[in-house]
Amino acid sequence: MWYMAGELLPATRRALLRRLALEQSGNRVPSIIAGLVRDGETIWVDSRGWVGDRRPDSDTQYRIGSITKTFVAVLVLRLRDEGLLSLSDRFGDHVPGTAVDDRQIWQLLAHSSGLSSEPAGQWWERTKGEAAEDFLAGVDSDQLRPEPQHVFHYSNTAFGLLGQLIERVRGKDFTTVLHEEILEPLGMRRTTESPVPPYAPGLAVHPWADVLQPEPFEDAVAMAPAGQLWSTVDDMLRWLRFLAGETGEVLHPDTLDEMRKPASVDDGPQWTRGAGLGLQLARHNGRALVGHSGSMPGFLANMLAEPAESTGVIFLANTTAGANGALAVDLLEILAEHEPRIPPEWVPEGGVSEELLELTGLWYWGPVPQLLRVLPDGMLDLSAWQGPGRQSRFRPDGPDDWIGLDGYHRGERLRVVRAADGSVTHLDLNTFVFTRRPYDPSAPVPGGTLPWE
Questions:
Q1: Can you list the domains of the chain with their CATH numbers?
Q2: Residue 317 class from Cβ within 10 Å (0-12 exposed, 13-18 middle, 19+ buried)?
Q3: Per the database record, which ranges form the Beta-lactamase-related domain (predicted)?
């Protein structure tokens, strides 16, 4: 049969549903719903269990817990992109008077600030939240843990503080900024700070009997940025597309790429779990995954995107314990096994200027051949001609100027140097000279060497 975007084979849908059903029945989950996206389209949504007398559907709200932190991180990076702060700023430069005055903003985003995992006082997830001034006053020296520098230690408190940072810089409350800058532009109208019907109630299941108990919902107030939000599968699938690269006008793709890079790791040199800037990272069977889990009284959630495959998964459940985080990975594995992603057809791009074509082909870094290609999106790719070596992509930044996007040359400037007649003499990449023949004697360093013998 023809493969059509958004369609899955019946065998694939059954395998996905079976895995979801095993999770719901085996772990006694009152209700659970999951969805998959691929290439910017929703390709599967299904559910098990009941919310009252109805099946949960793609418009049923669940509390998403710490997935809220991903929105906070995007808002902070927007402030940075606007020049209103730097990630290397001390937190106290913007919100003074706490024990982390000397910590840099990026450390709070990457869970390496040394802050306690939970704020001072009673169990914040189950009690009425504190106003901003009381919350900030509680972030004192008792909230610091040893070895704060570059050591991963998950901190809900840090994201309560980042919410205050957003409010101080914007001059508006956190939820207003969130709606204006992310939710409304992306059309996420069912993501809210409090539940709006239809929604699933938070429930706990007795460990030794099939008995349910309602879980509380309290407004976290100053700690809301750590886990307050409610959302639906439809809205979360849109957020997954964002994390996979479909950022719209909300965030520059380069900034999203920066957020998805490891800033701290959770399990040693051969890491499989780590943190970017407000995002959880994982490596599984060669897959690079990015997203976040969520847990609040009565709810569990997990969201993972695989940007390299333009694929993502979300599940939402109304249970305090039981739904396994491995479910999300398993659903991605089932999709990859049953229906490997079909790459798009290659078609000639055309429209490449003669000036750009002139830059393609072999260049030499001393005696080392390097290949420069034009990518379909108009960027340049510089890589080793054969075997391993440095590789970077470059985006245009003015006539004959390019900026490195990744690899060794990230952020560095590639300049096309021309003679008086307009012909290209060499490339200058942050002082590295690339010439059309090895050690071209007419070029600057390392040209002008002795002749080849």
A1: 23-48+58-338 (3.40.710.10), 354-434 (2.40.128)
A2: buried
A3: 27-323
